[in-house]
Every structure is written in structure tokens, then in C-alpha cells.
Predict the structure.
Amino acid sequence: MTTSFVFSQDCNLTISGKIIDVQHNSPLEAAVIEVVGTRLAAVSDANGDFILSNQCKGKLTLKISHLNCDAVFREIDLESSSSYNFRLEHRVENLNEVVVSKLRVHELSATSKIHSLTELQKDRFSSKGLAGALEQISGVTILSTGNSIGKPVIHGMFGSRVGIVYDDMLLENQQWGQDHAPNVDLNTFENIRLIKGASTLKYGTTPGGVVVLASILPKRVDSLYGKTILSGMYNGRGYSAISNWVKSHKSGAYLKLQGTVKRNGDFTSPNYNLTNTGNKENNFSISLGKNGLQHKWKAFFSYFDTEIAILKSAHIGNVKDLLRAIESDVPLVIDPLKSDIDFPKQANNHYTANIEYTNTSVVNGELHLKYSWQRNHRKEFDIRRGALKDTPALDMALNTHNLISNYEWDTTFGNFDSGVFFQVQDNYSSPETEIRRLIPDYLKTKLGGYLTATLNNTKDFIFEFGARYEYHNNEVQKFYRDSRWDLKNYEAPFRKYVIREEKSQKLIKRTLVFNTFSFNAGVRHSLSPTYSINVNYNHTQRAPNIAEMFSDGLHHSLASIEYGNPFLGKETTHKAVIDFEKKAGNFQFSLTPYIIVGNNNYIVNEPTGVESTIRGAFPVWEYAAVSALFKGFDFDFSYAFNAKTQFRNSTSWVEATNTKTDLPLVNIPPLTINNQLQFSLPNWNSFFVMVNSKTIFRQTQFPNNNFDTTVIEDGKIVTKTVDISTPPNGYHDLGLELNWGPYPLRSSNVSISLSFDNVLDASYRNYLNRLRFYSDEIGRNISLQIKLYH
Amino acid sequence: MFKNILIKSLCITAILFLASCDDKDEPKAINEHEEFSRVTIKVTKEDDQSFETHEFEVEGHDHDNTNNTGNSGDPHDDHAEIELEANTSYLFEIRFYNDEDPNNPEDVTQEIIDEADEHQIFYELTDGANITISSGPGDTMDRDSNPLNLISRWTTTGAGVADVEVYLIHEPTSKTGTSRDDFGGATDVEIEFEAHVE
């Protein structure tokens, strides 16, 4: 008895950790971790994570091998269950060293599930954009405008409720509006991670979730390496070329360069051309830095430039045009395919420059200091006449300066991170458009601080806490038309802010101050070496954004007039997420139920009436604060039949209700089921096939926002309902991907993939596409991608 | 010490920011020069050249003192009426204006004539009056010799009343048709009146 007790105590340890691909700073899937001299082995999963259980105390040797990398051996003196990060390098001469570091918890969150995209998942969408790449994660969908503009939706939330962080800064990118996609190139960054919820308060307070794009520091060796991805696609007659180069020096100095060029012409749906749907993109980034042992410097500059055509038939004049579009099965404008971009279109560019300093020699930790500047310039071109033909209908420049300093430190009982930040943001809407400003000019000052703590000194439990305070000061200068002013009785509350009156408009200058306080608490409990449970609670306060308070204008493609609500208060949401997970063995799963509550102050946009113009009557949508309840779950599981065959499933469901009216909220993703089978053939180590099957159900929970209009039909005036509410039918999307490689080619490695999207050429419409009234989604697409590792 | 560095650098940056951002100019008021705010139809009796001009303004437009903005519901409430005699021929000349800036009203009709290929005027009538509409003398033709109906000839026969919808269509997909649906494009102006033939 005694012997077995001792044995079980000594051999009950686990070695867990993460395998990271050094060159691409991404988790490395399918690396084999073996204990030399035993038959115990584990394989890293899509997140690069592995667990070796039932290990005995004492010295042992691990062999870490991967198809693309030379095997490395590492001796470990195991005292207690431990976590290790193993960094593997691609098989390149003179670079076959593995770096082992004891895991210091600098993950985004130690108690929430972090979804990392593998290099394969990321590269698959290198030419299609960030939202598409993120959609591979369960619970993430895309809110799109046509087929080239998409923003990520996490657990039914998007826009200001989802943070996109790149290079440690929140992207400040005119997030208002469904048709504003994040202006960031995913190819600039090696590592893309996502948390569904506000479990990291380091970057901001976003109840939906946070997406973090990061690049890794090159090693202190003399080396020159890089990667080039060339893609061509059949639908859209498009191509893209992406190239990354890193020159590192043993002194720690390095230079990274990256460039992206993309071109697409008009796309096609199964039955017709999608006239004016092409796009182009030119991006460039450079970073220069020095990785000293005690001091790290980094300077970064990036330029993102895109021009996106908007489906021609979505340009309409009034609600009768919208009715005609909805009643027609095909778009009302179908022209032969062309490759140039015509009106209507968007032209956006985004500049980023930042400089960063890290001191790693401070007591037990690191001190960071960073200044960052972002400039987002957005132009939207409509179909206009006369001298204004080439003048944008919307032309806004958003400048953001950020200064942030944080200190991360470790103690015996946990890890801590605290920081302070200061932001100044200036929005300028050009009057040259000769169209009244959708978003007023404003100057925003934001400052605050955060503290996060991870306590991991208890066996089997990790606790995490975070808090963030923000002070917002918005100085807004807005013109109100007298007619609107009188209708909404703004005279009493806002007369004191009027600074000028002219041409039937009043200019007000108003300062709005918001103080927000957010916190989170989480716990991760290892039930056994393979099972764990995470519980997280997020209390998030968000200041309303400028669009929610002050937007004022006509949305052409929806034939609706949108008004902000200047009386909105801060939005408080509570989110609770449970994550139950099995992380080892042939069968793995994760079940994530969640609930989000917004009491009395959840901001939505809803129809409130009709406004007459010389174009006819338009429905008016205004922002309002309601009570909301979201409930949903994400379920993922995978089963490895053998080393060469794996099946994965992910299922996501969410329901969101306005609890005051008991009506569903609009634009909530429907039930989605994804199945994926990956297999390779015996003796074909460098080849695999992946079959993807995606089933999107019809959304049955939707509010009725329909309205009536009258038309003349057969000589009579008839009343017709403009059905903007009924979701389209569900659909099934089948994809196939063939991957070869990597194969050595001179001094490089090359891999090739051939993928087929919508193989069955199915015609369908997507509830979350704002242009669903006008056309089907794109049809079959075949893409060829060649990857070169230099 | 780090706190000091931090506070100092924050202060310096704050000063730089404020120095660069202060005294921001007040925004300029924008007049929407492209939108139409007024439409006139001059109805001339061909027999004796007597005429009457009818004005259509945007309901709730800033210059319009009827406080009829928003939520007004049925646009058929207060119909303009155009009285016509039976068995008579009239010329309808439609013109488009922007008088957003009252001191400088603009006649936008010339832009429509200049871009004749991209515009079309269409009158859609309910049953109830016997009226035939054709292009009138002096009407503008586009490149394919399609009349724009800026000047149209209305020939009445028997008495009756019809509802008339007038559309200015931008970038129509077809320049000819018998109902609004046939033309496609985007509706830039939609006004309505009742034609009374007596």
C-alpha cells in the first residue's frame, strides 16, 4: 500500500505547455512531444497546447519533433507539475536550436479560453481579410456589407463592443456603422488571438470580446528569413502577393518589412455577375528595433490602403427603389464583368506609427512605455451628378494619439500588470462633400488605468482579477437643422450650448464626460490533468460612441435616415462565461455557455417613424437605450481517428432579446454548425485534405421592422410592405482544401494549397449581410496559394 | 523613480497634444447643393399660351414653415391639384431647384440636361382620367434620342381624376417603360399631385 501511495504521488505530475513556431510566432499544431525511453507522447493541438500526464518526479528527456522542424531534445528536472513553452524553428540551416522558457503567464488571460489561429488558418485568409480568418473560431461571425467588407461579431456583438488590438494598441478606425471594416492587414502580424468576453482589461472595455494581433520579436542571432504568399483566385479574377522579411543580428537589432498587394475584379454569384464588387489593397509595414538584454526598443510604421467597390444595384434613391430591389430575384443592375472599381465605393487608409521602449531589468518585471499615432481617413463615394461626381459623400479623418505605460511583474504568488494611458482623438468631417456631416467634428480625451492580477500559487486553481477605469471627455461641435431641433424639442435642454446660428442650422458646442469602471474575475480549475473548467465574470462599462449620440444622415443602401441620441448614458453589461474543457486524448471538447445582461442602458438602433423628403418618405432609425439579454453557447469537439485523420465540429447558438418589449434584437447570428474532416494518405506525409461543411440555419428570432409604402400598380394605388426583417433561408456551404508541402526548394521550403469554396455553387443569401436585399452571395471559388519560406 | 519618469513623460506629451490641438476652427455649415429642395411644373395651355406654375417643396424642409417634419405618415394627405380642361393639349415643363441657400437659389435643371444620358423623368398615373403623355416641343433628347420628358405634352379627352407620381430617375437601367419598375435606377425626386380633368 505504502509503495503504491508513494508511486502515485511521484508519478502523478503533468507536463503541459505550448509549442510555438519561432519564425511565425504562431502556435504549432501536430508537434509530437515524447518522453524518451517511454512510450508516453502527446501531440500539440491547434493552439499549440499539449499535456503529458502521469509523469514521475525526476530527470527526464523530452523529444519534440514536427514535420517541418528538426527534432530537438530537452532535459527536464521535474519537481512538480510544470508548464513549458517550446519554441521550434523551421528546418533552416544554422537555426536548429530550440529555446525553452519556463512559462511566465503573459497570456491574454489565464482563466479564459484563448483562441489562437494556427499559421495555416491565418494564411488561408491572407488574401481575404481579418473578419474571415476569425470566423473560423466558433461563436465568431461576420457582419458584412457585400462580399468585401466584414467586421467580426463575437457572441452577437460587434463594433464598439469588440476590440481589435494590433501591436498592443486598440485600433481606432471609425468603428461606427456596419459597413466599416477594421482597417488592418492581418498579414503584418504573426499571431492572432481572440477572447470571447472582456477577460482582459489591458486594452479596453469591450463586452463582446477582443482580437489581439501581435508580432514576435526576432531572436538574437544573425539571420535573414521570410515568407512569401502568392495567391490567385478564380472568382473575382483576383490575385494577391504578400511578403515578409526579417533581418536579425546577434546584437539584438532587427528589421522587419512586410508588404501586401491585392486586386480583385467583379465577383460572380452562381446565376449572375455581381456588378461593381471588386477591391484593391496596398499595405506596407516596417519595424525596426533592438532586443537588448535589459533594454528593448522598437519603432513601427504601417500604411493600409484599400478601395472597395459597392454593389451597383445597392445604390437606391428611396424606399420604393428598395421595395423594387427586394421584390426582384436578381440585382437590378447586372453588367459584364470588369476589373475596375466604379461608384459607389469606399476608399480608406490607415496610418500607424509608434515607438516603444521596454526595460526588463526592473525588479521582478518589465516596464513598457509606448507612444502611438493612428490616422484613419475614410471616404465614401456615392453616385452623384454634375460637378460633385468625383466628390466623396463622406470624408472623415480620425487622428488618435496614445501614450501608455505599463509595468508587469511576477511574485511567488502570481503575476501582475498595471498601466496608465492617455489618449487624444480628433475627428474631422470635411465640409467639401457638400453633404451634411454624418459624424460631427469632435475632440476626445481619454485617460485612465488598469490592473490585472493572476494568482497561481494554489494547486489546480488559477484566479484572475482585473479592473479598469476610464475618463472620457468628448468636446463635440455639431450642426442641428432647425426642423430637427424643433421636432425633438432640443431648445430647452441644448439652448445653452448654441454658439452660432446660420442657414436654418444651429451649431452647438457641448462637452460630454463619462467615467467608466469595469472589472472582471475569473477562475480556472484543473479537475484532472485533462479536464478543466473556467468561470469568468465581466462587468463592463462603455461610454457611448459619437455615432450613437450624434449620427445624422441618410444610409443609401438601406434607404433609412439615422439619428443619434444625445441623451445616452454609459452602457453597463454583465457577462458570465463558463468553459468546460477536455484537452488531451483522441476526443477533446470544449463547451462554453454564456449569458450577457444589459439593464436599461444597452444601446440599440431601432426604427421610430417616417420622415418625408423630396425623394419620398424614409423610415427613421434612432439610437435608444433598452434592456437586453443575450444567452448562447459555443460547443467544439474533435476526434482523432488516428494520426492521419481528424474530425472537428463547432456549433454556435445565441439568442438576444430586448427584455422590455420581449422582442428579439436585430442582426443576431443564427445557429451555425461547422464540420471539418482532415485526413492524409498513408506514406503521403506532406499532403492532406480538408473537407469543410458549414450549415447556417435560418434566423427565426428577429424583430419586425417592416413598413408600408404605396405604389401605382396597374393603374391603382396599392399599399405594399417593405420587408426588411424576414431573414433569408438557411444554407449549406461546402469547402475542400488540398495541401502539399512543405517541400525543399533550393534554400527555401515551398508549400502549395488548392482550395474550393462553395464547391456546390449554391445560391444563398446571408442574414448578416447588409446587402442581402440586393444579391446572392458569391458562388464557387477556386484559389491557388503558393507559400515560400525563405 | 519609474513613477517620476512616467508622470513627466505623460505631462510632456499632454502639453504637446494640447498645443497641437487647441483653437480648432469651428466647423463650417454645409449646404447640400446637390439635393433638390423645390420642383416647379409650368403648365401651359397650348391653345392660348396661358400658363400656371405649380411649386412642390419638401415637406418639413427648412424653408417650409408647415411644421410637418417626420412622422407625418401618409404622404397623400395634402395633395397638390392641377386642373386641366377636357379635350385640351397642355405643355408640362418641369424644373428642379436647390434653394437651400435662400440668397443663392440654384437651378439644377441644366445639370440634368448636361447629363441627359443618366437621367429620366417619368410620370406615372393611376386610372381615372384620360390623359396621353408624350414628349413636347423643346424637350431634351439623350444620345440615343430618347426624350427626357423635361417638357411633355399632356392631351386630355374625357373628364376624370388621376393620381400622378413624378419621378426624376438617376442612372436608369432603361430609358423607356410604362411603369416605374421598368426604369430601374435610383429615384432622386418623387413628388405627387392629382390631375383633375373637367
